[in-house]
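Q: My collaborator sent me two sequences in one message, no labels, and asked for predicted structures for both. Can we handle them in order? The first one she listed is below.
A: Yes, handling them in the order given. First sequence, followed by its structure tokens:
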Amino acid sequence: MPAAARVTEGQQPAQLWIVSSHDEIARSVGALAAEHHLHVACAENGVAGPCVIDPAIGTERLASALGGLHDRPPAAIIRRPSHASSVFYAMRHTTGRLVGDPRTSPGELRHFLIDVYGAVDSTSERRAYPRAGLSGIALEAPSPAELLDVSPYGARIRVEASLAAAPLVRLRVRLARVGLTSDVDAQVVGVHASPDHTELRLRFVRVSGEVQQELLRIAKSQLLCRTVAETFRRAQAGELVGYRRIAEPDQIVATLHALAEDAAPLTFARMNVGRAIQATAFAFDEERRHLVVTLPEARALGAVGDYLCYSTFARHESFSMDGYLLGVDEGRARLSVPSVCAATDQRAQDRLALGLDSALTVEVGDERLPIVDVSPRGFSFFAREARVEHEDGRLLEVDLDFGDGCVGHERVVVRHRRAQPWGGYTVGVTFVGEGGRHTEGVVRAALEEDYSGADLEPLFAERDYPAERVELHAGDRALVGLWTEVRHPGPLTVVVIPPAWAKTKESTSLLAQTLAASFDANLRAIAVLRLDYSNALGESDKDPEFRQAGKETLGLTFSACVEDIRAAVDYAHRRAHPTPRSTVLIGMSFSGPLCLRAAALDPRVTSLVELMGASDIQDLVRMASGGIDYVAKHRAGIRSHVQNVLGLLADTDRWTADGIRHHLVFLQDAQADAARLAVPVLWVHGRFDAFVNVGRIRSILECAPTLDRRLVTVPCGHIPTKSAEAVVSYVPIVRHLLAQVEVPDAVIAVPTEEQAERVSKGEWARAPRTHLASPRDYWRGYMLGEQGGSLGFDALASTREYRELMTKQVELLATAAGDVVHDIGGGMGHSIPFLARLRARPGGVVTYDLVPQVLAQAARRGAEQAMPIETVEWDAAFEPVPARLGGARTVLMSLFLSCLPDPLAFLRRLHAALPSGAWLVASSIRPDADLSGIYTSLIEEIGQGLVPPPEGVSSDDFLSGVREYMSSAAWLLRLADEGTFRFFEENGLRQLFTTAGFSVEHVTTAFGTPPRAVILAARKNA
């Protein structure tokens, strides 16, 4: 073995184990390990970390080397079809992947070492995202010069040698789509000289926002086009891991039917003046054998006979296809049946084909059948006839014979059953368990209940339940938590609650108080520990490069989050004396799969509760990002780099690489974890939660061997935290936990609104909070978009739910012909088109707002509707009421009061200024209003062409703008959590106006189902 290379100062040398008796293989592995500063050791009787396995040593010796391990080590398994049994055994007992022989193909093993010992770092170069070619961009100066590539932050150009000496370069670029020519100043940061030319690497130091935004849009579009074409080409050639080829004509046609039924969005690898082409699957024409698609500009796909590559997403799979353009009609295009489809496939990676004469067999029921291919996640077997137990979704218990006397008992789920041209069927299955038979048998359906909260008659808590700030450690990372404890005689129940995405420990204050009050009322002891993840929002440790505001979550990895959860369990067990009677994990949203993993690994966990927990991270992120599958793209070798995911920057490559390496992102990962559970499971699902797929949750619960598993549906959206809806979703959890400590008829106790707010304010007062240095800048970005050309609030205004809200509000104004409507906080004038359609059309509108650029948009809308409009710039939080309002008879305040630091003080000033008889209509988003349903429906309707983009905005820019706005809205909800803004329920809004002196005449709700906003009409009496 070569000596280990010197490692970075302060680091411990890492260990790589080799399970092989072949000297040449050991030398090859040692040489590769030395490149990565690894110690190398042979392992014949046990490994203690990542390893390289040569299956030629046989299954019996492998069993000795891998036996007795608590956690499966990551392993590189040398691909040896002649030793199929030992390959399969190594796959099953490690988190292994197949690699070529390191003596002749070292590349795959090198990639394995990089993945295991070093996370992907896409933040080192700012220009890494996104960089693209030149469609729609021309370089007019300097001349002669050639533009090689460009990003929003810099460029690479080819110039004459004399220009290379200049420290600054002025470029003149022409952007075809927007008809803009602009000068850009750039600093030379790199020079590469060759005999015939010189290349300069430039960083922009002066560039207009409009140019930068257009470069960003072009770069993203070209990156998407390259992704589509490259994915299809490589998948078709069999070069791409993580995809399976669909080549049989019947299966391809069935796939096209599914795309048409789902109205799946399609993205074509073709640029049209710098943008990708978006379309929607409309129908499959059986007679002509054509796929019909709809798109705003059908001729943008090119000429009849052109060859096209495109990608799509349907039924939780990504597809890459090709075809020829066969015809173009108005708004529709017809495509040929693809020659082949490439679909994402968990088992495509590291699959070893064996053939029908395989000696490896599986016993299914009373039959022993040949295994025809194997992978770390499952296998396929051959059956001569279709039987009921081979149907998709079936859970089976099977016996495997690995040879050398090694036998395995496994639980698997059937993924597909395919007829073969030569007769018979291949049945693909995925592992969902750690082996071992369950004497109670396999129960297929989880018990599902619908909980409406109709029987909820809680007591109010008699006292406050404040939390103590605590510090704990996960390895060398310091974590910060909040500890709430109620002591009574008897053993303690410990509840650990990690945060959801974009949340911190303070966000679950009401849940902790409800648990404490209810256990207290039933004379039971409880301790609730809430924590912040490391390298995330909140007070826990962050690596130095991620401590800057806005970058806190760039270092987050899923495996580290699981370690943080287990460290919290460690702390709770050390602090609780004596040992807790029960230890409960509550996973919310993004933390759901992470708590599932922690519960599967840690025998101290006695119960798992999922509160709107995601089924799997891949699906949650895909839904939350508007259909972008970052995980599938990463597995295909396509990098997405840093993205804004619901208001937070995330290094999608860092956490995807970590999640894939630790089996923490896919549905199959969650199913495998569920199969290892030996504890009760309660899954609380929100009926209106569009981010979490209840069908996938059922498939996870079906894999859990425990019979104590419940799926409860509550009439809520995604993770409510501070409203009556939140209490309704907490009640099944409280009853579940009290039943486990033998309180069958539990009393539910909740804090009063005043108590809950008092405790929550105390927690937030000592926590780091977002500081808005300039409210004017914040609202400008929120309303207009963070960058020029963005949609901003126009994205939300395009939804049918917002149109319903505005329609109800203007109808309640009850204007008379010629009245002037005073729109306070009127923003971009979104009320004006609705006012213009009233039968008694107002004589004009006065719009008041803090942001002058927003008022300019309102003036434009007024002109479009031929509505006389006056705009007034006004900081309503601090400036006196404008004299113009002294004669106002009709006032509209749509979604405005929540933006003020002191709404009551403002309403009192307004009441004093308004004339007697003045009529007001105001609205507020309700606390815990969940926008997931509105967001996902809008994305779907845009894809189907049901919601046309605004004038002058392309379909892909429209989708991008909607996704950007959703991130802004998610951050606004975060600010509401912190108390910067406050949303109101019906009683709160009514009390606010009554206290200010107004007479409340009418209160109603609107903004979708369930209604997400409250509308109030009031009058100033004489």
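Q: And the one she listed second?
A: Here it is, processed independently of the first:
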Amino acid sequence: MKKKPMLVLLIEDEPFYAKLVHEIIKDARDASFDLIHVQSLKAGSDCVAKEVIAIFVLDLMLPDSSGLETFSKLKKKAKDIPVVIISSLDDEEIAVNALKMGAEDYLFKVDVKPNNLVRTLRYAVERKRAHEEIHRSSEKLRALFSGFPLPSFTWQYSGDDFILVDYNKAALEVTDGKISELIDIKARDLYSDKPEIVDDILRCYTKSIIIRKNYEYHYQTTEKIRFLAVTMVPTPPESVFVFTEDSTERKGAEAELKRARDELEMKVKERTAELSETNEKLEGEIEERKQAEETLRFLNLAIEQSSEGIATTDLEGNLLFVNNAIASMHGYSVDELAGQHLSIFHNAQQLPAVEAANREIAETGKFKGEILNCRRDGSVFPTLMNNSIIHDTDGNAIGMLGSIRDITDQKLAEEKLYNSEERFKSLSDASFEAIFVSEKGVCIDQNQTAERMFGYTASEAVGKKGTEWIAPEDREEVMNKMLSGYEAQYEITALRKDGTTFPAEIQARMAYFQNRQVRITALNDITKRKKAEEALRESEEKWRGLFENSIEAAFIVDVKGNLKSVNRALEMLLGTDREELIGINFLEYMKPKMAKEILEAYNHLYRTNEPIKDLTYDIIRKDGKERTVEGYVNVIKKENKVIGFQGMLRDITERKRVEESLRIRDWAVHSSISAIIIIDLDGIITYANPSFVKMSGYDDVSDIVGMSLMEFWQEERKISEILDYLRSTESWVGELVAKKKDHSFIDVQLSVSIVKNEKGKPISIMGFLVDITERKKLEEDLWILSITDSLTGLYNQRHFYKKIEEELVRARRMSYPICLMILDLDNFKKYNDRYGHLKGDDVLRKIGGIIKKTIRKKIDSAFRYGGDEFAVILPNAKKEVAFKVAKRIKNTVNKRFDDESIGISFGIELLTDNLNVEDFVRAADVAMYKDKRVKEVER
């Protein structure tokens, strides 16, 4: 489809110039413009209300308005539309002041020519578009930071301490909203009970290193003790970012898993000892060993499948066990590492660090830190190592347990981040402008150019009022422009530390810096430019004023490429004086690899006279620094013969840097291992990263965009409630069951937050999802392990008391009967003394199996109550039913153990209104002992 032309509104009361502009627009082959012409400011204002205007061409002297008032009135009507001023030679000062008030450019009426006018219109429109794109990109980056799921804090250096100056939404949530009360608090006051945290922040700041560390931390705001994985990142010039991840739940799960594993290992050791003492009972030993080996295989399988390297050694450092991860990590097989010493993983250069770690283990019993390891091929890689001493049940050290993780990728990421920050600092310090960052009128940072220009060091500058760099006669004007948010360039007299003054050009605007609103001020020493302007004003060649003062770098070269004329902007761009530039070939300031391409473009221009538009290439300044420029070049003719070229260059280095930064941020979101989606306010998905596509089981992101969020969840009603909840707040975090494409389900942790535009209006919702299916399964396995008797497979005594309390409450609430049965083995001690504990354990397992098969499934509950005692809870059952169950158990036991003289006694009690849990259990226990005494009397 052909692009619709942009509409130009010409406000001009002189017919001759109006007709000239109309003809230029009409005849321009390379410009897509349409023209509307009116003769008064009122008519122009009326036209703005009816038409979509892309750019104004304005004469400041009109029948119904004149001077700068004409420009001010028009900008109030259409403040976002660019304006190009056309004026007479006598009105140049007014046109220049209009530029300071926000006009994009100006032309003298005598210079209104096809090339000048069309190029000026196009550059004005393109500058406006570039500013809008950068503004939108900044909003997007701010929204991503605000929705970042980890609590984040910014500490600013102040003396020998740090001040809390900023935080994100996740930090607000983790402190129950109380973090806002701690703004401006000192780190040593907040962490008075944890001074090591302040020491680590200071070390991160002074040494410019990234620190990752785990802390046990007591939140003052919520009175909770949590385990935190903390990352500290130095942020030039005066701050440290701190990101925290709560690992409390994971620590608890790991501790419980270790406890269960240690318990199992101790049981294996006990069984193995008994087997060695009772060699005559071979059959029992084999059965017990098989069970121990099965348990060990289960544990080894879990260890082998771990993504972290795991190893155990004796106290001399000889490897007793390694998993596949640690063998693969170092380039060996598991068999090759068996019996080897730990030194196989280190070369001679790494031994001092290893010996220091060993000393720490010997002194404290553990070590956690970064160590360089050596692969089989001799290559070295960084690791995060966590070692601890293994003790036996008597507390004696018997070996070491270690885990290791390859952090090569992590180190590369840290190095890239550090290099990125260093490049940013270098670009700022390399600027030819003095740049100040101020907050509430007080300087908080400056670049090196500012230090050289004014004589104040960085420490002297920080804390000064911004007006102290301004001569007294201009301070009121600067203060008024700062308070009004004025962002255009204007001139003032600057004041150095030594009291001398110089003319300067200043421009400032509001921005976000280190998560707070500041004012960025750029100041140029224009002493040389003022001298040049004075010389130009004395000259009769008025056109040189436009050439010299253009904000674009301008130049004229002959057909051989030798520079004949340059403006100040080109001098600043190249970092040298025009005296050095005039006469040299322009290719000397270009990168050699691009010279061929540039020459081909100029040769094409020479042959065809077709202007070079938007040609992008790199130049090399005198100081060796590279800048990226975008240029426009046309021919200069005399008597229809090309005698040279004239061109304009625009420095787009910063724009390219911003675009590259945006591409990196977009790539980071796109390649994140966390699943990320963006939905509109109606619940329709507008973006999904590859991790979400993979998690949900779809083939491509195009299959997901446009779908309703409701289609991805087991409970659609819950999602509706969350969306309703977000209308009254800004975020929600919780666990849900997600539905994949194949209709299978996974457990996820969902974090959603509202994204707002610059006016605070909600525009979309961002969600972060983490698959926690494996974690939920682990939690369930640990819970089952904690309530189960490992020998019989029945519930254990701890779960018995919890279960019976629940059943008693339910029985009384629903008014149904409940019985408790206590069972005890007869002659079991004699059996143990005669055949040994292994045979006795076998009897207990079989009795547990008999009870489990006899009771009602999913109604009754069976427990190993003590050593050879069992209990059964029978809900909604009278004593008659309970006696039948007990009789079946007793008969089965008698048949199974008739030859071994093993019997079983039982007591049954029915719950009554006057019984509590203790009395209920005691009554059943008493009934069981009565049954046992009756048998003893009968024998």
